[in-house]
């Protein structure tokens, strides 16, 4: 069972040190700077005696990198369970792709931001060399992030599709000109039905993604919860909800809906939803593991990534002994 808060662990315990490490490199092949950064990463790994591994089917990246005859292929030469780490060069979309690639293993993901916001990334591109020194020395912690297990059931209750999500599972209308009608169910009990453009079911990690754009709350990673946010709902009670991490959230596409809906998970995996289909989202027992080099505050990450205005902040005032005792419930 996933711990109640994101956990960190010493990376030296995650893989044997007697054999060469197998490290997956995932990069966006259509950006020259990203390809150059991927080559630097691969060269640093090779020089340290580690084995670089590329995803199967990344022919475009291999062509841009040049000679890759000595670089193994994931799923062909190396199994996902043998991976020690995944280094990702790109934005959040590339990191989500890497999470998909390593899903059946235990390798943590180290994101190097080559995109715009890169909220999931750990570092920026200008510190790659220092990051590689720390990767080679196994000088990083591992943080676990909650994910969702998602299944689709037909009108008879049979499971017809199963998947997962790190950010969010979204039920959306398939036709722009039509509204879909849904009923939301929480732990087997109906909550409300309404017409809408869709419903977002988000993890804390996804709270700064689609959930955030849809008006949902930002949830700190240390708070394990599930957010439910209706999209353009035609209803009096259709506010965002924050639920416990063990809650089962079901969204049923009502049979009277004119047309079908579609399920999207992390914007990468989709499945058509005919009228009467139910999408059930609950906590997955398998988290995504992120490699962390810096124990930065999530508040600082929000400020940095969203460029939030903090001008005028003078710093937290030092607490007096009386304030400290009062917060602890200790008589003065």
**What is the SS-derived class?**
alpha+beta
What is the N-to-C succession of helices and strands? EHEHEEHEEHEEEEEEEHEEEEEEEHH
Helix content: 10-25%
The fraction of residues in strands falls at: 25-35%
The biggest sheet amounts to: 6 strands, parallel
- Give the radius of gyration: 22 Å
The number of strands is 20
CATH A-level architecture of the largest domain: Sandwich
Whole-number count of domains? 2
Q: Which runs of at least 5 residues are low in confidence (pLDDT < 50)?
A: 1-5, 12-16
**Contiguous helical run count:** 7
End-to-end distance, in Å? Answer: 41 Å
According to CATH, the fold-level topology of the largest domain is Tumour Suppressor Smad4
Envelope shape: globular
State the CATH superfamily name of the largest domain: Probable inorganic polyphosphate/atp-NAD kinase, domain 2
CATH class of the largest domain, please? Mainly Beta
The averaged pLDDT comes out at: 89
Widest β-sheet, arrangement of strands: 3-2-1-4-5-6
């Amino acid at each position: 069972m996933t711990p109640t808060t994101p956990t960190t662990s010493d990376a030296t315990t995650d893989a044997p040190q007697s054999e060469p490490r197998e490290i997956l490199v995932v990069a966006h092949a259509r950006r020259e700077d990203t390809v150059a950064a991927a080559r630097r990463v691969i060269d640093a790994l090779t020089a340290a005696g580690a084995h670089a591994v590329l995803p199967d089917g990344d022919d475009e990246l291999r062509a841009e990198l040049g000679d890759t005859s000595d670089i193994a292929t994931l799923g062909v030469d190396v199994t996902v369970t043998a991976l020690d780490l995944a280094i990702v060069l790109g934005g959040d979309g590339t990191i989500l792709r890497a999470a998909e690639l390593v899903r059946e293993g235990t390798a943590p993901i180290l994101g190097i931001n080559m995109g715009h916001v890169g909220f999931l990334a750990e570092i920026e591109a200008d510190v790659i060399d220092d990051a590689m020194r720390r990767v080679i020395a196994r000088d990083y912690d591992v943080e676990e992030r909650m994910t969702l297990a998602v299944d689709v059931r037909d009108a008879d209750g049979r499971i017809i599709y199963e998947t997962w999500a790190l950010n969010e599972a979204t039920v959306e209308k398939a036709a722009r000109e039509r509204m879909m009608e849904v009923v939301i169910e929480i732990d087997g009990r109906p909550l409300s039905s309404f017409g809408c453009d869709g419903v977002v079911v988000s993890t804390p990690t996804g709270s700064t993604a689609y959930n955030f754009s849809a008006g949902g709350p930002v949830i700190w990673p240390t708070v394990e919860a599930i957010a439910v946010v209706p999209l353009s709902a035609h209803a009096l009670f259709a506010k965002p909800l924050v639920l416990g991490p063990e809650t089962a959230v079901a969204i049923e596409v009502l049979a009277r809906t004119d047309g079908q809906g579609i399920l999207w998970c992390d914007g990468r995996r989709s499945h058509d939803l005919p009228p009467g289909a139910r999408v059930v989202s609950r906590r997955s027992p398998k988290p995504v593991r992120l490699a962390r080099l810096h124990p930065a505050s999530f508040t600082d990450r929000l400020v940095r990534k969203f460029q939030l205005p903090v001008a005028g902040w003078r710093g937290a005032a030092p607490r007096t002994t009386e304030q400290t005792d009062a917060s602890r419930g200790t008589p003065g």
